[in-house]
Automatic annotation (TrEMBL):
HAMAP family: IspG. Converts 2C-methyl-D-erythritol 2,4-cyclodiphosphate (ME-2,4cPP) into 1-hydroxy-2-methyl-2-(E)-butenyl 4-diphosphate. This is 4-hydroxy-3-methylbut-2-en-1-yl diphosphate synthase (flavodoxin). It comes from Candidatus Kinetoplastidibacterium blastocrithidiae TCC012E. InterPro entries: Dihydropteroate_synth-like_sf, IspG_bac, IspG_bac-typ, IspG_C, IspG_TIM, NO2/SO3_Rdtase_4Fe4S_sf. GO terms for biological process: isopentenyl diphosphate biosynthetic process, methylerythritol 4-phosphate pathway; terpenoid biosynthetic process. Keywords: 4Fe-4S, Iron, Iron-sulfur, Isoprene biosynthesis, Metal-binding, Oxidoreductase. It is an enzyme of class 1 (oxidoreductase).
Length: 421
Protein backbone atom coordinates (compact mmCIF):
# COMPACT_ATOMS: atom_id res chain seq x y z
CA UNK A 1 0.00 0.00 0.00
CA UNK A 2 1.40 3.37 -1.04
CA UNK A 3 1.68 6.30 1.34
CA UNK A 4 1.61 8.78 -1.54
CA UNK A 5 -2.10 9.40 -1.01
CA UNK A 6 -2.81 9.99 2.70
CA UNK A 7 -6.56 10.08 2.12
CA UNK A 8 -6.46 6.67 0.43
CA UNK A 9 -4.32 5.33 3.27
CA UNK A 10 -6.80 6.61 5.83
CA UNK A 11 -9.93 5.25 4.20
CA UNK A 12 -8.35 1.85 3.50
CA UNK A 13 -7.55 1.55 7.21
CA UNK A 14 -10.71 3.10 8.54
CA UNK A 15 -12.77 1.18 11.05
CA UNK A 16 -16.07 -0.15 9.67
CA UNK A 17 -19.12 1.38 11.34
CA UNK A 18 -22.83 1.83 10.92
CA UNK A 19 -24.00 4.92 9.07
CA UNK A 20 -26.10 7.32 11.16
CA UNK A 21 -27.93 10.03 9.22
CA UNK A 22 -28.63 13.40 10.84
CA UNK A 23 -30.67 15.78 8.73
CA UNK A 24 -32.76 18.91 8.51
CA UNK A 25 -34.66 20.20 5.49
CA UNK A 26 -32.81 17.94 3.03
CA UNK A 27 -29.41 18.81 4.52
CA UNK A 28 -28.20 15.30 5.25
CA UNK A 29 -25.10 14.69 7.35
CA UNK A 30 -24.00 11.07 7.70
CA UNK A 31 -21.82 9.97 10.60
CA UNK A 32 -19.87 6.76 10.03
CA UNK A 33 -20.45 4.20 7.31
CA UNK A 34 -17.30 5.29 5.47
CA UNK A 35 -18.59 8.83 4.97
CA UNK A 36 -16.24 11.81 5.54
CA UNK A 37 -15.41 12.77 9.11
CA UNK A 38 -18.04 15.21 10.39
CA UNK A 39 -17.00 18.35 12.29
CA UNK A 40 -19.16 19.41 15.21
CA UNK A 41 -19.22 22.37 17.56
CA UNK A 42 -21.36 23.65 20.42
CA UNK A 43 -22.69 27.09 21.28
CA UNK A 44 -21.74 28.85 24.50
CA UNK A 45 -24.56 31.38 24.38
CA UNK A 46 -27.59 31.06 26.62
CA UNK A 47 -30.11 29.06 24.61
CA UNK A 48 -32.94 31.25 25.86
CA UNK A 49 -31.32 34.14 23.98
CA UNK A 50 -32.41 32.78 20.64
CA UNK A 51 -31.02 35.70 18.61
CA UNK A 52 -27.46 35.44 19.95
CA UNK A 53 -27.60 31.65 19.76
CA UNK A 54 -28.85 31.73 16.17
CA UNK A 55 -26.08 34.15 15.19
CA UNK A 56 -23.42 31.97 16.78
CA UNK A 57 -24.80 28.85 15.08
CA UNK A 58 -24.67 30.68 11.75
CA UNK A 59 -21.04 31.68 12.41
CA UNK A 60 -20.09 28.11 13.34
CA UNK A 61 -21.87 26.72 10.27
CA UNK A 62 -20.20 29.18 7.89
CA UNK A 63 -16.84 28.31 9.46
CA UNK A 64 -17.36 24.64 8.62
CA UNK A 65 -19.35 23.04 11.46
CA UNK A 66 -21.66 20.41 9.99
CA UNK A 67 -23.53 19.76 13.24
CA UNK A 68 -24.07 22.26 16.05
CA UNK A 69 -25.05 21.30 19.59
CA UNK A 70 -27.04 23.54 21.89
CA UNK A 71 -27.76 23.27 25.61
CA UNK A 72 -31.37 22.37 26.45
CA UNK A 73 -31.49 22.56 30.23
CA UNK A 74 -34.79 24.24 31.12
CA UNK A 75 -38.34 24.77 29.95
CA UNK A 76 -37.36 28.20 28.63
CA UNK A 77 -34.48 26.71 26.66
CA UNK A 78 -36.74 24.00 25.22
CA UNK A 79 -39.21 26.66 24.06
CA UNK A 80 -36.36 28.66 22.49
CA UNK A 81 -35.28 25.71 20.34
CA UNK A 82 -38.26 26.38 18.06
CA UNK A 83 -37.34 30.06 17.74
CA UNK A 84 -33.73 29.19 16.99
CA UNK A 85 -34.71 26.66 14.35
CA UNK A 86 -37.14 29.10 12.71
CA UNK A 87 -34.59 31.92 12.76
CA UNK A 88 -31.96 29.74 11.10
CA UNK A 89 -34.39 28.42 8.49
CA UNK A 90 -35.44 31.95 7.57
CA UNK A 91 -31.79 32.68 6.76
CA UNK A 92 -31.21 29.45 4.84
CA UNK A 93 -28.98 27.94 7.56
CA UNK A 94 -30.17 24.34 7.55
CA UNK A 95 -27.47 22.95 9.80
CA UNK A 96 -28.84 20.07 11.94
CA UNK A 97 -29.13 20.94 15.63
CA UNK A 98 -28.23 18.56 18.44
CA UNK A 99 -29.96 18.96 21.79
CA UNK A 100 -27.64 18.50 24.77
CA UNK A 101 -29.64 17.02 27.69
CA UNK A 102 -28.57 16.37 31.26
CA UNK A 103 -30.65 15.46 34.34
CA UNK A 104 -34.06 16.49 32.96
CA UNK A 105 -33.99 15.54 29.28
CA UNK A 106 -36.78 12.99 29.72
CA UNK A 107 -39.10 15.67 31.06
CA UNK A 108 -38.19 18.40 28.56
CA UNK A 109 -38.58 16.13 25.56
CA UNK A 110 -41.92 14.89 26.87
CA UNK A 111 -43.27 18.33 27.79
CA UNK A 112 -42.12 20.08 24.61
CA UNK A 113 -42.84 17.86 21.59
CA UNK A 114 -42.09 20.77 19.20
CA UNK A 115 -38.59 20.89 20.64
CA UNK A 116 -38.20 17.13 20.27
CA UNK A 117 -39.23 17.42 16.63
CA UNK A 118 -37.11 20.49 15.79
CA UNK A 119 -33.89 18.90 17.03
CA UNK A 120 -32.12 16.60 14.59
CA UNK A 121 -30.31 14.55 17.22
CA UNK A 122 -30.26 14.12 20.99
CA UNK A 123 -27.20 13.85 23.21
CA UNK A 124 -27.68 12.14 26.58
CA UNK A 125 -25.32 11.05 29.34
CA UNK A 126 -26.18 7.77 31.12
CA UNK A 127 -24.35 9.08 34.17
CA UNK A 128 -26.86 11.82 34.91
CA UNK A 129 -30.26 10.76 33.58
CA UNK A 130 -31.23 9.85 37.12
CA UNK A 131 -30.42 7.45 39.94
CA UNK A 132 -31.92 4.21 41.21
CA UNK A 133 -35.04 3.06 39.36
CA UNK A 134 -35.50 6.59 38.01
CA UNK A 135 -32.37 6.15 35.92
CA UNK A 136 -33.86 3.36 33.81
CA UNK A 137 -37.23 5.06 33.54
CA UNK A 138 -35.75 8.38 32.44
CA UNK A 139 -33.38 6.75 29.96
CA UNK A 140 -36.23 4.63 28.58
CA UNK A 141 -38.41 7.72 28.11
CA UNK A 142 -35.74 9.52 26.11
CA UNK A 143 -35.12 6.54 23.86
CA UNK A 144 -38.84 6.02 23.30
CA UNK A 145 -39.18 9.67 22.26
CA UNK A 146 -36.21 9.30 19.91
CA UNK A 147 -37.94 6.29 18.34
CA UNK A 148 -41.22 8.18 18.05
CA UNK A 149 -39.64 11.10 16.20
CA UNK A 150 -37.07 8.98 14.34
CA UNK A 151 -34.12 10.84 15.86
CA UNK A 152 -30.58 9.53 16.33
CA UNK A 153 -29.00 9.67 19.78
CA UNK A 154 -25.44 10.18 20.94
CA UNK A 155 -24.83 8.24 24.11
CA UNK A 156 -22.10 10.40 25.57
CA UNK A 157 -20.35 9.09 28.65
CA UNK A 158 -18.04 11.48 30.48
CA UNK A 159 -15.55 10.74 33.21
CA UNK A 160 -16.61 13.87 35.05
CA UNK A 161 -20.17 12.58 35.36
CA UNK A 162 -19.79 8.82 35.26
CA UNK A 163 -22.58 6.45 36.29
CA UNK A 164 -21.84 6.29 40.02
CA UNK A 165 -23.81 3.09 40.61
CA UNK A 166 -21.93 1.22 37.92
CA UNK A 167 -18.59 2.62 39.07
CA UNK A 168 -19.26 1.51 42.65
CA UNK A 169 -20.14 -1.97 41.42
CA UNK A 170 -16.97 -2.24 39.32
CA UNK A 171 -14.77 -0.94 42.14
CA UNK A 172 -16.30 -3.46 44.54
CA UNK A 173 -15.70 -6.30 42.08
CA UNK A 174 -12.12 -5.16 41.62
CA UNK A 175 -11.50 -4.97 45.38
CA UNK A 176 -12.59 -8.57 45.78
CA UNK A 177 -10.08 -9.85 43.25
CA UNK A 178 -7.34 -11.87 44.88
CA UNK A 179 -4.85 -10.95 42.16
CA UNK A 180 -4.50 -8.65 39.17
CA UNK A 181 -6.37 -5.82 40.81
CA UNK A 182 -6.56 -2.64 38.75
CA UNK A 183 -5.87 0.86 39.94
CA UNK A 184 -8.74 3.32 40.31
CA UNK A 185 -8.18 5.07 36.99
CA UNK A 186 -8.15 1.82 35.04
CA UNK A 187 -11.41 0.71 36.69
CA UNK A 188 -12.95 4.09 35.94
CA UNK A 189 -11.94 3.98 32.26
CA UNK A 190 -13.28 0.45 31.85
CA UNK A 191 -16.50 1.57 33.54
CA UNK A 192 -16.85 4.39 31.01
CA UNK A 193 -16.62 1.91 28.17
CA UNK A 194 -19.04 -0.55 29.77
CA UNK A 195 -21.53 2.22 30.56
CA UNK A 196 -21.59 3.39 26.95
CA UNK A 197 -21.89 -0.09 25.46
CA UNK A 198 -24.53 -1.25 27.95
CA UNK A 199 -26.59 1.88 27.32
CA UNK A 200 -26.38 1.47 23.56
CA UNK A 201 -27.41 -2.18 23.84
CA UNK A 202 -30.34 -1.23 26.05
CA UNK A 203 -31.40 1.48 23.60
CA UNK A 204 -31.53 -1.13 20.86
CA UNK A 205 -33.65 -3.38 23.07
CA UNK A 206 -36.09 -0.47 23.39
CA UNK A 207 -36.37 -0.23 19.61
CA UNK A 208 -33.75 2.34 18.63
CA UNK A 209 -31.95 1.02 15.57
CA UNK A 210 -28.20 0.53 15.57
CA UNK A 211 -28.16 3.04 12.70
CA UNK A 212 -29.48 5.67 15.13
CA UNK A 213 -26.74 5.40 17.79
CA UNK A 214 -23.44 7.28 18.11
CA UNK A 215 -21.15 6.73 21.09
CA UNK A 216 -18.63 8.93 22.85
CA UNK A 217 -16.52 8.33 25.96
CA UNK A 218 -14.82 11.58 26.83
CA UNK A 219 -11.90 12.18 29.15
CA UNK A 220 -9.48 15.10 29.36
CA UNK A 221 -6.13 13.29 29.09
CA UNK A 222 -4.65 12.26 25.75
CA UNK A 223 -3.38 8.78 26.65
CA UNK A 224 -6.60 7.84 28.42
CA UNK A 225 -8.67 8.96 25.45
CA UNK A 226 -6.60 6.82 23.09
CA UNK A 227 -7.00 3.81 25.39
CA UNK A 228 -10.77 4.23 25.66
CA UNK A 229 -11.40 4.65 21.95
CA UNK A 230 -9.19 1.76 20.94
CA UNK A 231 -11.23 -0.42 23.29
CA UNK A 232 -14.51 0.94 21.91
CA UNK A 233 -13.42 0.40 18.33
CA UNK A 234 -12.70 -3.25 19.09
CA UNK A 235 -16.01 -3.76 20.92
CA UNK A 236 -18.67 -2.26 18.64
CA UNK A 237 -19.67 -1.00 15.21
CA UNK A 238 -21.30 2.23 16.39
CA UNK A 239 -19.89 5.45 14.95
CA UNK A 240 -17.62 7.17 17.45
CA UNK A 241 -17.57 10.85 18.35
CA UNK A 242 -14.03 11.96 19.24
CA UNK A 243 -12.90 14.77 21.48
CA UNK A 244 -11.28 15.62 24.76
CA UNK A 245 -13.92 16.77 27.18
CA UNK A 246 -11.87 19.64 28.64
CA UNK A 247 -8.79 20.25 26.52
CA UNK A 248 -7.86 23.53 28.21
CA UNK A 249 -6.80 27.02 27.23
CA UNK A 250 -4.88 28.27 24.22
CA UNK A 251 -1.85 26.33 23.04
CA UNK A 252 -2.38 23.60 25.62
CA UNK A 253 -5.91 22.93 24.42
CA UNK A 254 -4.89 22.97 20.77
CA UNK A 255 -1.90 20.67 21.26
CA UNK A 256 -3.82 18.20 23.44
CA UNK A 257 -6.75 18.01 21.01
CA UNK A 258 -4.48 17.68 18.00
CA UNK A 259 -2.38 14.96 19.64
CA UNK A 260 -5.32 12.82 20.70
CA UNK A 261 -7.46 13.20 17.60
CA UNK A 262 -4.59 12.79 15.15
CA UNK A 263 -3.42 9.52 16.68
CA UNK A 264 -6.92 8.04 16.70
CA UNK A 265 -7.87 9.27 13.24
CA UNK A 266 -4.63 7.95 11.79
CA UNK A 267 -5.56 4.56 13.27
CA UNK A 268 -8.86 4.73 11.37
CA UNK A 269 -10.85 5.43 14.55
CA UNK A 270 -13.42 8.21 14.68
CA UNK A 271 -16.38 9.32 12.60
CA UNK A 272 -17.14 12.78 13.95
CA UNK A 273 -14.96 15.18 15.94
CA UNK A 274 -15.13 18.23 18.13
CA UNK A 275 -12.24 20.34 19.39
CA UNK A 276 -13.19 21.67 22.83
CA UNK A 277 -10.96 24.56 23.85
CA UNK A 278 -11.62 27.17 26.52
CA UNK A 279 -12.23 30.54 24.80
CA UNK A 280 -9.72 33.28 25.55
CA UNK A 281 -10.61 36.95 25.45
CA UNK A 282 -12.71 37.83 22.45
CA UNK A 283 -11.71 34.80 20.39
CA UNK A 284 -14.54 33.53 18.24
CA UNK A 285 -16.16 30.21 19.09
CA UNK A 286 -15.55 29.21 15.49
CA UNK A 287 -11.83 28.88 16.28
CA UNK A 288 -12.44 25.31 17.43
CA UNK A 289 -14.00 24.54 14.05
CA UNK A 290 -11.00 25.96 12.20
CA UNK A 291 -8.65 23.84 14.34
CA UNK A 292 -10.70 20.72 13.57
CA UNK A 293 -10.45 21.48 9.86
CA UNK A 294 -6.68 21.94 10.13
CA UNK A 295 -6.36 18.57 11.89
CA UNK A 296 -8.27 16.77 9.14
CA UNK A 297 -6.40 18.57 6.37
CA UNK A 298 -2.97 18.03 7.93
CA UNK A 299 -3.73 14.27 7.98
CA UNK A 300 -4.86 14.35 4.36
CA UNK A 301 -8.35 13.15 5.31
CA UNK A 302 -10.39 16.16 4.19
CA UNK A 303 -9.38 19.31 2.36
CA UNK A 304 -10.85 22.78 2.81
CA UNK A 305 -8.39 25.33 1.45
CA UNK A 306 -4.99 25.35 -0.34
CA UNK A 307 -2.08 24.94 2.05
CA UNK A 308 0.62 27.58 2.27
CA UNK A 309 3.94 25.95 3.20
CA UNK A 310 6.50 28.33 4.68
CA UNK A 311 9.74 27.92 6.58
CA UNK A 312 10.16 29.11 10.19
CA UNK A 313 13.12 31.33 9.41
CA UNK A 314 16.64 31.11 10.85
CA UNK A 315 19.92 33.02 10.90
CA UNK A 316 19.99 32.82 7.10
CA UNK A 317 16.65 34.67 6.85
CA UNK A 318 17.10 37.79 8.95
CA UNK A 319 14.99 39.69 6.43
CA UNK A 320 11.26 39.51 7.19
CA UNK A 321 10.28 39.87 3.53
CA UNK A 322 9.38 36.19 3.09
CA UNK A 323 7.34 36.21 6.32
CA UNK A 324 5.23 39.11 5.09
CA UNK A 325 4.93 37.47 1.68
CA UNK A 326 3.78 34.18 3.24
CA UNK A 327 1.18 35.98 5.35
CA UNK A 328 -0.08 38.04 2.40
CA UNK A 329 -0.38 34.95 0.19
CA UNK A 330 -2.21 33.03 2.91
CA UNK A 331 -4.75 35.86 3.24
CA UNK A 332 -5.04 36.15 -0.55
CA UNK A 333 -5.86 32.45 -0.88
CA UNK A 334 -8.38 32.43 1.97
CA UNK A 335 -10.17 35.47 0.53
CA UNK A 336 -10.29 33.96 -2.95
CA UNK A 337 -11.54 30.59 -1.71
CA UNK A 338 -14.97 32.20 -1.34
CA UNK A 339 -15.05 32.22 -5.16
CA UNK A 340 -12.67 29.42 -6.03
CA UNK A 341 -14.48 26.69 -4.05
CA UNK A 342 -17.47 26.90 -6.42
CA UNK A 343 -15.63 27.61 -9.67
CA UNK A 344 -12.64 25.32 -9.30
CA UNK A 345 -13.34 21.94 -7.65
CA UNK A 346 -10.16 20.39 -6.31
CA UNK A 347 -8.36 23.68 -5.68
CA UNK A 348 -8.55 22.99 -1.94
CA UNK A 349 -5.81 20.37 -2.42
CA UNK A 350 -3.33 22.83 -3.94
CA UNK A 351 0.00 23.43 -2.14
CA UNK A 352 1.81 26.77 -2.31
CA UNK A 353 5.34 27.14 -0.91
CA UNK A 354 6.75 30.48 0.22
CA UNK A 355 10.33 29.84 1.27
CA UNK A 356 12.92 32.15 2.78
CA UNK A 357 16.40 31.01 1.73
CA UNK A 358 18.44 29.07 -0.82
CA UNK A 359 19.05 25.97 1.34
CA UNK A 360 15.65 24.26 1.35
CA UNK A 361 13.72 26.88 -0.60
CA UNK A 362 14.21 25.63 -4.17
CA UNK A 363 13.55 22.00 -3.24
CA UNK A 364 10.38 22.79 -1.27
CA UNK A 365 9.19 25.06 -4.08
CA UNK A 366 9.69 22.32 -6.66
CA UNK A 367 7.72 19.85 -4.54
CA UNK A 368 4.75 22.22 -4.19
CA UNK A 369 2.23 22.93 -6.93
CA UNK A 370 3.49 26.52 -6.95
CA UNK A 371 6.52 27.72 -5.04
CA UNK A 372 8.61 30.82 -4.62
CA UNK A 373 12.08 30.86 -3.06
CA UNK A 374 13.60 34.03 -1.64
CA UNK A 375 17.34 34.47 -1.06
CA UNK A 376 17.23 35.47 2.62
CA UNK A 377 19.86 37.44 4.57
CA UNK A 378 18.45 40.81 3.61
CA UNK A 379 19.56 40.82 -0.02
CA UNK A 380 17.44 42.46 -2.67
CA UNK A 381 14.48 40.14 -3.28
CA UNK A 382 15.18 37.97 -6.31
CA UNK A 383 12.82 35.02 -6.27
CA UNK A 384 12.65 32.06 -8.64
CA UNK A 385 9.12 30.69 -9.11
CA UNK A 386 8.38 27.00 -9.69
CA UNK A 387 5.16 25.61 -11.17
CA UNK A 388 4.57 21.84 -11.09
CA UNK A 389 8.26 21.29 -10.37
CA UNK A 390 9.58 23.46 -13.18
CA UNK A 391 11.20 26.87 -12.83
CA UNK A 392 9.06 29.24 -14.90
CA UNK A 393 10.27 32.73 -14.03
CA UNK A 394 12.21 34.90 -11.59
CA UNK A 395 10.48 37.78 -9.83
CA UNK A 396 12.35 40.89 -8.68
CA UNK A 397 11.79 44.20 -6.97
CA UNK A 398 8.70 45.71 -5.43
CA UNK A 399 6.13 43.85 -7.54
CA UNK A 400 6.90 40.32 -6.32
CA UNK A 401 3.68 40.04 -4.31
CA UNK A 402 1.32 41.23 -7.04
CA UNK A 403 3.05 39.17 -9.73
CA UNK A 404 3.03 36.03 -7.60
CA UNK A 405 -0.69 36.50 -6.90
CA UNK A 406 -1.29 36.69 -10.65
CA UNK A 407 0.69 33.48 -11.21
CA UNK A 408 -1.39 31.71 -8.56
CA UNK A 409 -4.69 32.96 -10.01
CA UNK A 410 -3.71 31.90 -13.55
CA UNK A 411 -2.59 28.48 -12.29
CA UNK A 412 -5.86 27.89 -10.45
CA UNK A 413 -7.92 28.76 -13.54
CA UNK A 414 -5.76 26.65 -15.84
CA UNK A 415 -5.45 23.56 -13.66
CA UNK A 416 -8.84 23.39 -11.95
CA UNK A 417 -11.06 25.32 -14.33
CA UNK A 418 -11.43 22.42 -16.69
CA UNK A 419 -13.40 20.59 -13.98
CA UNK A 420 -15.96 23.37 -13.54
CA UNK A 421 -19.47 22.89 -14.88
Amino acid sequence: MSMTDPKEYYYLNRRKTNAVEVSWNDNNVTIGGGYPIVIQSMTNTGTTNYIDTSLQIKELFLSGAELVRITVNSSEAARSVIDIRNQLDKNGIYVPLVGDFHYNGHKLLSDFPDCAQALSKYRINPGNVGSGHYKDNNFNNIIEIACRYDKPVRIGVNWGSIDKDLLSLKLNENNHLKENQLDYKSVMLDTLIESALNSASHAEELGLGSNKIVISCKVSQVRELIYVYNALSDACNYPLHLGLTEAGLGDKGIVSSTSALSILLNQGIGDTIRVSITPEGNNSRSREVLIAKEILQSLGIRFYSPSVISCPGCGRTNSDFFQKLASDIDIFIKDNMLIWKDLYPGVEKMNVAVMGCVVNGPGESKNADIGISLPGNGELPIAPVFVDGERVTTLKGDSILSEFKTIISNYVAARYGRFSL
